[in-house]
Amino acid sequence: METAEIRRRWLRFFQDNGHTVVPSAPLLYDDPNLLFVNAGMVPFKPYFLGQERPPYQRATSVQKCVRTLDIDEVGKTSRHGSFFQMNGNFSFGDYFKEGAIELAWELVTRSQAEGGFGLDEAKLWVTVFHDDDESIELWKRIAGLPDERIVRRGLADNYWHMGVPGPGGPCSEIYLDRGPEYGPDGGPEVDEDRFMEFWNLVFMQYELADVRSKVDFDIAGDLPAKNIDTGMGLERIASILQGVDNLYEIDEVYPVIARASELSGRRYGASHDDDVRLRVVADHVRTGLMLISDGVVPGNEGRGYVLRRILRRAVRAMRLLGVDAPSLPELLPVSRDAMAPSYPELQRSWGRISQLAYAEEESFRQTLRAGTQILDLAIADAREEAVREETTGGPVAGAPQLSGSKAFQLHDTYGFPIDLTLEMAAEQGVSVDEQGFRRLMAEQKAKAKADAKAKKTGHADVSIYRELADALGRSVEFTGYDQVASEARVAGLLVDGSSASHAREGDSVEIVLDRTPFYAEGGGQLADAGRIVLDGVVVEVDDVQKPLGDLIVHRARVVSGELTVGDHVQGLVDVQRRKAISRAHTATHMVHKAIREALGDTATQAGSENAPGRFRFDFNASAALPPSVLRDVEARVNALLADDLEVHAEVMSQAQAIEAGAMALFGEKYGDEVRVVSVGDWARELCGGTHAQRSGQLGVISLLGEASIGSGVRRVEALVGSDAYDYLAREHALVGQLTEVLKVRPEELPDRVGSILARLRDAEKEIATVRQQQVLAAAAGLASSARDVYGVSFVSHDAGEGVSADGLRTLVLDVRGRLPGDRPAVVAGTAVAKGRPVVVVATNDEARRWGVKAGELVREAAQVLGGGGGGKDDVAQGGGSDASRVREALARIEHVVGERVTGR
Ligand code: SER
After folding, report:
1. Of the N and C termini of the chain, which has fewer Cβ atoms inside 10 Å?
2. Average pLDDT for 34-50
3. Minimal CA–CA distance to 173: which of 230, 90, 109, 92?
4. Is residue 169 in contact with ligand 1, taking CB distance under 6 Å?
């Protein structure tokens, strides 16, 4: 049975049983605790927790999910897929255990001819939470299961929660015995490959607070109602009904394996290692496809990083299979064709999806080329270091190792993934300090996370915001689309992250109002600032955020008086700031539209920031925007500003918005009403932000430039209104000054500056030649200045600033050539090139016979200079950072020469 048919049967069965069919939410669901939707119940969480009233009592869905925690297991076992779909049926305070078990048993065992899945009752087992006698009785009565096929299990297996605070409860799972060829008899306790779990019925009845691990958590209390949340892995049931071994072999996934096998010439099923790689390819290509489709863009943090990692792992697995040519153009369309029957949007957005994915592969290929060179150098260094330690008997004598910081640098600066570093170093017999690397990674991540969290949630715990939201009992009314001043009631206060009834003069406070004109940062628009006042009380608002759902929190300081919960106040938005931000926001929409006109619809928005008087806009494009296009975009928008188009907002259904040609963003809840902002009839976009009333209010915009901010993503930055004017006026004044100084007309400036630069370069070259000649002219004099150091002719000379390392080397060798060859001679020179000290030492044959080696002398000197270096016995070169110590370095060389000769 095809996967698409399984999905249809599922939805029909539950619809026939009184469930509302709810389309899958996007993978990027707005939940502060989750990177991606990872279970069918995620969009329903507020209903389970009683935070929102469910619009239905029974629902069913097939939800897209992504889990990447055990990504390293993908392909190795048959149970881990990074993207999967979860069939779910849900009851919100309606049926409970009995209803859930009846429905499940009916669908699973009803014959295929009658619309069921037709599994053989004799092969089904179930597990229940250890003290759940009620479920055991139900399974016996409803399904007629014998005692030996009902297994009691503990917390680790039969209790489900989200891994974070939220709803949870005991569960009961249904298993299929796949037969003796898969493993020993004895039920799920003995072998979970043979006995494969495919459906989890969760009896949601508790709210969990502190979740420390799967089995270690606190129960905060009962949920308002007893609910049902079930999840059947669509890929698992598909593998059962299609009679294949694992989820990689089902109709939605296998075509990619087949294509990868064709491209690589490696047969699936021939070698374990290759099979794992082929499965990784098939899984990751599909996950990448679905993530990009839902609006994720490859990047270096958060969701973007997960996507990047997934795509790169796929490409890397193909390379390990021996395919060096670009792979995604071959594989992604195959995955699209396999998934499109269930997800038609993959066809609609194909231009954007493929462009982003292919650009990411291309940039990874470049990374591989650049990083490989750097890595080779680092490995050579590690080897040399090891040899040195062997001669000096260092701590890990002879075992070459790449430091954690080098591996981190490769990762951080060159995007070179650690698994690649490990593998390529191992190929050359060099190990990597992986622990050191992980430590640095963890430090970096912790910092990034702390920064992000501090911004969003201030210092308070999310649960405190939940309490505030609960106390308010409904969402905050945002009045700011039409008003910049509103009356409101203080619904809650946090002082130092704890709930408070008063805030006094000088306090930093977070304030929840029942209604507010203040716009909270979101959708790329910065927060409003302003004041909250009442008789004798003034509070300065600096920031406004939505730390949880739609809860709007004002971060503020009490300037005078005392603010009390329940007070009736006035919220006064800083109008100038708001207007400047709104103008920037409207400008962003217009630039977005103009860029799309120029580049086509694949140039979709990838991020933006709208600030007072300026904005930046990120969009997907595989190449730089040529300056001429940038100028056209700027000219087009400025022309439309003068046309003074009306800007208006309308709330409509998603379908109407798409119909009206609105540029869609991602992450909107399906079926929701959306707000569409239009600039004239021209730019239409889904948007929750605030805007100018007419385009004429923007005055003028000026694009400052365009740059890459990651593979396939470009950024334009721009100024709006008086900021744009000030900028242009400054540039104009600058041109005026230059024409004055250079005595040419403005249009002649580039030529004039070019010719001045050329003359300057020539002059510099000439100076360098003259200086070099002077240095060499000194050689004869230096040779005659040789001193006797324990029988060695020793010359030392500091050539000073402006002599290059090469020049110094020539000088030192020249002086050595002038010294008599029948007695030992050492010449040491220093110079300061571009602010950094260099040292060069040369020895003759006789000196080396006496045991005096240039490489060693340079190392000693470089140490004094705070650097390193080395080389051969006859001539060596090094450098450092402390130019003030060159004399000391030369003295050190003389001292070591003495030590070597006298044997001390
Ligand atoms: N939430 C449960 C799970 O993810 C059942 O849907 O397994």
Report:
1. C
2. 90
3. 230
4. no
pLDDT band at 396 (very low <50, low <70, confident <90, very high): very low
Cβ of 230 closer than 6 Å to ligand 1, yes or no, is yes
Q: In whole angstroms, what is the distance from residue 5 CA to residue 14 CA?
A: 14
pLDDT in tens, 105-140: 999 999 999 999 999 999 999 999 999 999 999 999
Residue with tokens 């730089």: 624
CA 190 to chain centre: 40
Residue located nearest, by CA, to atom 4 of ligand 1: 39
User: Quick check: CB of 203 below 6 Å from ligand 1?
Assistant: no
Listed in sequence order, the residues at least 6 apart from 744 whose beta carbon sits closer than 8 Å to its beta carbon are 752
- Residue 881 three-state SS: coil
Distance CA 551, CA 572 (A): 19
Give nearest CA residue, ligand 1 atom 7.
231
Residue of 24, 92, 171, 200 to test ligand 1 pocket, by largest number of atoms within 8 Å of CB: 200
Write the burial class of residue 761 (CB in 10 Å: 0-12 exposed, 13-18 middle, 19+ buried).
exposed
Distance CA 842, CA 852 (A): 10
Average pLDDT, the chain: 90
Q: Tell me the sheet residues that pair with 201.
A: 172, 230
772-790: pLDDT as tens digits: 788 778 888 899 999 999 9
88 CB near ligand 1 (under 6 Å): yes
Task: State which ligand 1 atom lies nearest to the alpha carbon of 39.
Answer: 4
- Asked whether 336 and 350 are in contact (CB, 8 A), the reply is yes
CB of 830 closer than 6 angstroms to any ligand 1 atom = no
The three-state secondary structure class of 324 is: coil
Given a cut of 80, whether residue 155 has pLDDT beyond it is: yes
Residue bearing tokens 């193909």 = 318
Entry field: residues in the chain = 904
Closest residue CA from atom 6 of ligand 1:
231
Q: Could you tell me the distance, in angstroms and rounded to a whole number, from the CA of residue 191 to the centre of ligand 1?
A: 21
